[in-house]
Write a structure and sequence with these properties.
Keywords: Metal-binding. Belongs to the FAH family. It comes from Fulvimarina pelagi HTCC2506. The chain is α+β, with helices and mostly antiparallel strands. It has two domains: 299 residues, Fumarylacetoacetate hydrolase, domain 2 (Alpha-Beta Complex), CATH 3.90.850.10; 66 residues, no CATH class. It contains twelve helices and 19 strands. The strands form three sheets. Strands 2, 3, 4, 5, 6, 7, 8, 11, 12, 14 and 17 form an eleven-stranded mixed β-sheet that branches. Strands 1, 9, 15, 16, 18 and 19 form a six-stranded mixed β-sheet that branches. It has a two-stranded antiparallel ribbon with strand order 10-13. A hairpin with a 5-residue loop joins strand 15 and strand 16. Helix 4 packs across helix 5.
């Protein structure tokens, strides 16, 4: 079944985008959009996205590189050229439990031991105890410490509440270098999972010095039942073939698009199933409990370095509680679901759900990228 590959924001003509496509005989290539044309700007100045982000002014590098005119933007949209994730050598990191509402859902997963049949009753109990105590709560603040003490007294303390309102953020490695898929690709669920969901997120593009250079959209595919059985299964719940989608492009920060636009971003989610089911959801960055700059600082610094930079999922407010099949069990994916994650400044990331075991295996690694760059005389 052919699906729409991606869409651009209304102000795309004012934006500076960077992306990647796979070119036959050449390998992954850096592209930008100029008007309605796709331009390959792979060069000694920008052999990789990682290298481009190291520039003090990557926007100037993109605009000054002449490049090769590949095709019309429509050729990307119809899938004639494969659109890859817009990052390469960066480590794929992610922050969890950065929104109070999603934090409560993690507690419910933990309390239910990953059993969706128990989730609805536990949700009612948890909300009755918490009430509005988490609203507008700044993580790590004195008020947060007071809420923590009250929750411990009520026997409701959880590891998820610790990272949600305590001083230390949850930061984990979402996926290996080069393993993320782009817009238009299939996203993967581990076949053992029966309770899972998309996670619509903003993904920051950060260089080796911790400087935030731009942003993209991401789907942090999540297996609720697996993580709910044990937080020590986070790796199995989060890191599977094609379980990290990023795209369609990285939008660089410039005079018209800044980190403040990320802070104010509204994300829209639509899931459409082959069974006629439709789920509409949203995530508002205005509700995040830790500022994006704080999350970047907790990821890198004197305690941890990333010589090739990193991509950082910022977490989601989206809580998938709308029932799909069994009343009280909430949402879970079915094969063939089309997931659209949209933002008015970043466009739309579109992916189709499939089992990780049925999607083409990930085979193009770092050594293959180095070989491709050598063939082009760029190393």
């Amino acid at each position: 079944m052919a699906i729409e590959r991606f869409s651009l924001p209304a102000d795309a003509g004012k934006a500076t985008f960077i992306g990647r496509v796979m070119r036959e005989g050449l390998g992954p290539s850096l592209i930008t959009l100029r008007g309605d044309r796709v331009i390959d700007i792979t060069s000694r100045e920008a052999p990789t996205v990682s290298a481009l982000l190291e520039a003090d002014d990557p926007v100037a590098v993109v605009r000054q590189t002449e490049g090769e005119d590949l095709c019309a933007v429509e050729a990307l949209a119809d899938g004639k050229i494969s659109l890859l994730a817009p990052c390469d050598l960066q480590v794929i990191k992610a922050c969890g439990v950065t929104f109070a509402q999603s934090m409560v859902e993690r507690v419910i997963e933990e309390q239910s031991k990953g059993n969706p049949a128990l989730a609805d009753a536990i949700r009612g109990q948890v909300h009755a105890i918490l009430g509005d105590s988490l609203r507008d709560l700044e993580a790590g603040s004195e008020k947060a410490a007071q809420v923590k003490a009250a929750l411990i007294e009520k026997g409701l303390w959880s590891q998820y509440l610790e990272v949600g309102i305590g001083p230390d953020a949850e930061v984990f490695t979402k996926a290996p270098v080069l393993s993320s898929v782009g817009s238009g690709a299939k996203i993967g669920l581990h076949p053992i999972s029966t309770w899972n969901n998309p996670e619509p997120e903003i993904v920051l593009a950060v260089d080796s010095r911790g400087r935030i250079k731009g942003a993209s959209l991401g789907n942090d595919v999540n297996l609720r039942d697996v993580e709910g059985r044990s937080a020590l299964l986070l790796g199995k719940a989060k890191d599977n073939n094609a379980s990290s989608a990023i795209g369609p492009f990285i939008r660089f920060f410039d005079a018209g698009y800044t980190l403040d636009d990320v802070r104010a971003a509204e994300l829209e989610l639509v899931v459409e199933g082959t069974d006629g089911y439709r789920l509409d959801g949203s995530s508002s960055m205005r509700e995040i409990s830790r500022d994006p700059e704080m999350l970047v600082a907790q990821t890198c610094g004197p305690h941890h370095q990333y010589p090739d930079g990193f991509m950082l999922y910022l977490g989601t407010l989206f809580a998938p509680v709308q029932d799909r099949d069994v009343p009280g069990e909430g949402f879970t994916h079915k094969l063939g679901d089309i997931v659209r994650i949209s933002n008015d400044r970043l466009g739309t990331l579109i992916n189709e759900v499939q089992y990780s075991t049925e999607i083409d295996p990930w085979t193009f690694g770092i050594a293959d990228l180095m070989t491709a760059l050598c063939r082009r005389g760029l190393l």
